[in-house]
Every structure is written in C-alpha cells, then in structure tokens.
Amino acid sequence: MGGHEKVNGSNDSSGIYSYTDAGGEQVVVKIATTTRKLISGIWLDLVNMTQNGTVRLYYKIDGTTYRLFRSYAFVVLTDPDGLYIDLNMGITNDLEVRYIEGVDETAVRAVPYSIVYDMKE
After folding, report:
1. Fewest C-beta in 10 Å: which of 43, 52, 66, 108?
2. What would the pLDDT profile of 47-81 be if each residue is shown by its tens digit?
3. For the chain, what are the domain ranges?
4. Is pTM, for the whole model, over 0.90?
C-alpha cells in the first residue's frame, strides 16, 4: 500500500501504479488489513490508458480467496478519465482494485489512485 496514512480519523492511501505491458488483469492497489476499515471511496485516474478496459474490485470474503464483487467498464472515447467508485464498505480482510485492458496498451501506463477510509479498531 502506497501513500500516507494518519493514525486517527480519516485516512488515505494514494500513489501511482505502473500498468505493465505484460497485459492481463493486474492489481492497481491492494489494501491488506487485519483490522476493520470502512472504505469510503476509490479514485482512479485513467487518463493515460489508450485502450478500453475494466476496473474490478475483489475482496477476500472468507479471508483466503479473492471474490469479484464489482466491475466497471472503461471506454476511452466516451468515459471521463477520472473514475470515482463510491463505497460504504466495511472490510476486515484484504481488498484489491484490479485493471484489465481490452486490447494491448503496447506500453507501460501510469494509473494514479487514491483510497479514502476510516480505521475502526
């Protein structure tokens, strides 16, 4: 997890992920946790993506296996470059935000992100 975190109150984790030219589904950001957190929202800046793709959210519901619970299509020509995912979601296990390109990007692409959350324990 990149970025910075405060001990009390609202926290955020932000940084830049380099979506590699290897293709396939890649983890943009992972929130690893063993304590309760309330995720308020996730920001992704997809301005550098040149091909359509999909943002997927996965959660370790049973503490072991990631399960897909939300998916967002991203269309380069029609969608805004900034994607905000509005959540009111308590987590006690790991959460991953993943991106998969629809067609080969042919280069490494920077994907800035920010996740806002509250610590509950």
Report:
1. 108
2. 999 999 999 999 999 989 999 999 999 999 999 99
3. 14-119
4. no
SS3 percent helix, strand, coil of the chain, rounded to 5, is 0, 60, 40
Summary mean pLDDT of the chain: 89
Torsion sign across C-alpha atoms 111, 53, 72, 29: negative
The separation between the first and the last C-alpha atoms of the chain, rounded to the nearest angstrom, is: 19
CATH 2.60.120.1110 fits 14-119, yes or no: yes
Q: How far apart are CA 9 and CA 18, in angstroms?
A: 29
Q: Give the angle subtended at the CA of 42 by the CAs of 44 and 86, to the nearest 5°.
A: 120
Report yes or no: 35 and 95 within 8 Å, Cβ to Cβ: no
